[in-house]
Amino acid sequence: MRNFEFCNKTKIIFGKETEERAGSETAQYAKRILLHHSGGHPVASGLINKIKESLKKTGVEWVELTGVQPNPLLSLVNKGIEIVKKEKLEFILAAGGGSAIDSAKAIAVGAVNEGDIWDFFERKRTTDKALPVGTVLTIPAAGSESSLSCVITNEAGPWKRSINYPCIRPVFSILNPELTYSLPPYQTACGIVDMMAHIMERYFTKEPNVELTDELCEGALRTIIRNARKIFSGGENDYAARAEIMWAGALAHNGLLDTGRIGDWASHALDHELSALFDIAHGAGLAIIFPAWMKYNIKEDTPRLARFAAKVWGVDGAFYNYEQAAREGIFRMENFFRSIGMPVRFSDTNIDTTRIPEMAKRVVHFGTIGNYRKLEEKDALAIYKLAAERDEW
Amino acid sequence: MRNFEFCNKTKIIFGKETEERAGSETAQYAKRILLHHSGGHPVASGLINKIKESLKKTGVEWVELTGVQPNPLLSLVNKGIEIVKKEKLEFILAAGGGSAIDSAKAIAVGAVNEGDIWDFFERKRTTDKALPVGTVLTIPAAGSESSLSCVITNEAGPWKRSINYPCIRPVFSILNPELTYSLPPYQTACGIVDMMAHIMERYFTKEPNVELTDELCEGALRTIIRNARKIFSGGENDYAARAEIMWAGALAHNGLLDTGRIGDWASHALDHELSALFDIAHGAGLAIIFPAWMKYNIKEDTPRLARFAAKVWGVDGAFYNYEQAAREGIFRMENFFRSIGMPVRFSDTNIDTTRIPEMAKRVVHFGTIGNYRKLEEKDALAIYKLAAERDEW
Fold first, then answer.
1. Is there a contact between A340 and A186 (Cβ–Cβ < 8 Å)?
2. What number does CATH give the domain B184-388?
3. What is the Cα–Cα distance from B280 to B286, expressed in whole angstroms?
4. What are the φ and ψ backbone dihedral angles of A96, each rounded to 5 degrees?
5. Residue in chain A lying closest to B224 (CA)
6. Check: complex ipTM more than 0.95
7. Do B15 and A1 lie within an 8 Å CB cutoff?
8. pLDDT at A232 over 60
9. Do A10 and B5 touch (CB under 8 A)?
10. I want to staple B167 with a disulfide (CB 3.0 to 4.6 A). Which of A284, A320, B130, B367 is the partner?
11. Largest Cα–Cα distance in chain B?
12. CATH 3.40.50.1970 occupies which residues in chain A?
């Protein structure tokens, strides 16, 4: 186990009707805020009106910035920064999923740091200053509601890049599982894969003696899988199942599950090229990349993949050799992803496989990717090819 | 799942040689502090000298208050409050186990709240103000290093009472597993039972649909059991095993494992009478009480105890009926406690069984105990009797 620090100051407010507390929680930080969201579903569902009522009650004034899209764009972030500076706003309240929250986090950094915000994403500089951000979560997926991460797409490239600063962890996040009843099944499924990916990125480590976090990761994955099955078997409005998924999504990315180890994150990098070039939803891209990444790693660390198969997918190790168990685990994972409507191969999507060499080159822009196994361009090429072929093993 | 709030601001600094950071972490809060510890082992081991060196380097001055004992006493707390006020100290750094930390927390409350500190423990009033507390942990057990709890013994009674305030959560806690190599086996074992008890108090709930936290609890318990076996099989200086135990002890009581549910805590109350009247170590008392409490509850909620047996103790539910599985689980738990040198019956200790009626009366001083099942005096009597008899079932 590696030495580590763990400190997560986000106040989680979880449960039914908790969105009514948006005003009183925000008022503890500021009286003039930016209210940031897509302008679509949160408005149609009545959530934004509820939040505004709640803000009014506590005397909080807001300026509204709508238009956040999936894979949130740098242009809107820059617009937000301008508004916050001009209006002297002191807090950003994001309502929505990871996109709205990430957009809010980037605005929070830009508002108090002069110069080009994209420099931070290009790793040219770093900061420990940002405006406080609060969130009302509507899509359990990205875990951004209690994470220190933020991913923004610069449409000029297009480039999709991330920053990870403790100062952008939300000060509070309101999680009401009822708000997720109305999610389209495809979005629910993308969220489920996204949170599973956050756990798997942390689970695959070569750090020895991280038993407690292994157990926590495996338990969280089993909980997500069981409750996803409930939701996709007519349980769209099953509060209990939605609540397990929502809480698991926050824990998946709050930092607890990688204490004592270093996560891999190669699959996220591999997926970012899919969303940047083909606008594939993040979760859908991960459902394609993860099986391919695992297949590429079977020989690298067979016991780890066999354990994953046994503890998460119920593969009885005793009746298999390690490699066979590992393959059976990946097979079950693919079947699970398919069962909730996710693609598992490029051919299930609009991805143009002739651009695989270009993606492999782009993904190593900053050097090798991954910590579990350092991947170079040739490795990325092989993984993309595994994702492209239906019957490769 | 119940609505809940979760926010734990304690910064955990975990790993080898981390005690060297005591000075730099403390200096972020204050320049004049109370350094609080037992005066025994932490001095002999050289830890206190290391901490003083580290404080000196960052220009932090300290007043020292030693003499903390297991089941920390109100008289020392009052002495600490007096010193802090007189010397105008701004921070309390505790070095030791739960006793030193709890004593520090009580001093932190008394230092900024006028009047008799014991009033808080008698539930006559409450507060949200305390001096900041930091800790260097030497005994993984109580979980006080990141909890909002504090237990103090008033020797006038003797009464053992607790407070639970967010304002007494330590601002940082330094956890170096190497510091636990030198613990006597009895103390290691008491700590292991204590942290298991913290998880079991939370695990036994009648709240439905708390799957994620159930999984996390079960995984943490399995990790503790496996690594306890390593330590008690010649692994006293096994860093990996000590690290798993130390991290599990902090998570056991940091609030995560009871999100969405309400813990029981009857067993803690039942044990408090053992320590108040017979000075039984907290962990040892819990090793006696928990099996008795579980036996008393088998008919109350057989499936829950059967699940506990299956998931934590590996009892294969398919080959048992639920009640038989539940009993087998309790039997395995008792055997485990015995294997690490813990008592499991009153007859293994100096407890005078003629005082059982008195203990049963004292334990319901504030009314019924327990949330999983509300216990009255007659229930407490029955549980103490189960703990007294060797062959009662």
1. no
2. 1.20.1090.10
3. 10
4. 150, -150
5. A212
6. no
7. yes
8. yes
9. no
10. B130
11. 66
12. 11-179
Q: Which residues of B259-283 are buried (b: 16+ CB within 10 A; e: fewer)?
A: bbbebbbbbbbbbbbbbbbeebbbb
- In total, the C-beta contacts within 8 angstroms joining chain A to chain B are 113
CATH class of A185-388: mainly alpha
Rounded to the nearest angstrom, the minimum Cα separation between A214 and chain B is: 9
Q: Please tell me the predicted confidence (pLDDT) of residue A171.
A: 98
When pLDDT is cut at 50, 70 and 90, the band that residue A188 belongs to is very high
CB B330 within 8 A of CB B309: yes
Please report the pLDDT score of residue A160 as a whole number: 85
As a whole number, mean pLDDT of residues A11-22 equals 98
Residue B209 Cα, gap to closest chain A Cα (Å): 6
Is A11 in contact with B7 (Cβ distance < 8 A)? yes
- Give CATH 1.20.1090.10 domain extents, chain B: 184-388
State the architecture of B11-179 in CATH terms: 3-Layer(aba) Sandwich (3.40)
* C-beta contacts of A267-272 below 8 A and 24+ residues apart: A267/A197, A267/A200, A267/A201, A267/A293, A268/A197, A268/A201, A269/A363, A269/A369, A269/A370, A270/A363, A270/A369, A270/A380, A270/A383, A270/A384, A272/A151, A272/A160, A272/A363
Chain segment B74-102, per-residue pLDDT in tens: 999 999 999 999 999 999 999 999 999 99
Asked if A9 and B4 come within 8 Å (Cβ–Cβ), the reply is no
Q: How far is B179 from chain A (nearest CA, A)?
A: 14
Backbone dihedral region of A279: left (phi > 0), alpha (psi from -120 to 50 degrees) or beta? left
CA distance B239 to chain A (A): 9
Among B140, B318, B300, B320, CA closest to B231: B140
Which tokens in the block code for residue A165? 């600063």
Find the chain A residues whose C-beta atoms sit closer than 8 A to any C-beta of B.
Answer: 1-16, 18, 208-209, 211-212, 215-216, 218-220, 222-223, 226-227, 239-240, 243-244, 247-248, 251, 256, 259-260
SS3 B326: helix
CB contact under 8 A, A212 and B6: no
User: What is the 8-class DSSP label of residue A253?
Assistant: T
Which residue in A18, A211, A218 is closest to B227 by CB distance?
Answer: A211
In chain B the first and final C-alpha atoms are separated, in Å, by 35
Under 8 Å CB-to-CB from A129, ≥6 apart: which residues?
A: A109, A112, A113, A167
- Return the closest-CA partner of residue A237 out of A283, A192, A187, A183: A183
Domain with CATH 1.20.1090.10 in chain A: 185-388
Written as six digits, the tokens of A168 are 């952008």
pLDDT, tens digit (0-9, with 9 covering 90-100), for A333-366: 999 999 999 999 999 999 999 999 999 999 998 8
pTM (two decimals): 0.95
- Distance between CA A237 and CA A308 in Å, rounded? 30
Q: What is the Cα–Cα distance from B393 to A134, expressed in whole angstroms?
A: 55
Q: Pick the residue from chain A with its C-alpha nearest to B241.
A: A209
* Å between A244 CA and nearest CA of chain B: 6
Q: Which residues of chain A make contact with B199, given a CB cutoff of 8 A?
A: none
pLDDT at B393 > cutoff 60: no
| Residue B391 pLDDT grade (very low, low, confident, very high; cuts 50, 70, 90) | low
Q: Scanning the structure block, which residue is given the tokens 């609540």? A: A243
Q: Which of A207, A212, A254 is the best mutation test for B, with the most CBs of B within 10 A?
A: A212
Report CB contact under 8 Å: A215, B212.
Answer: no
- Tokens representing A85 are 């500076």
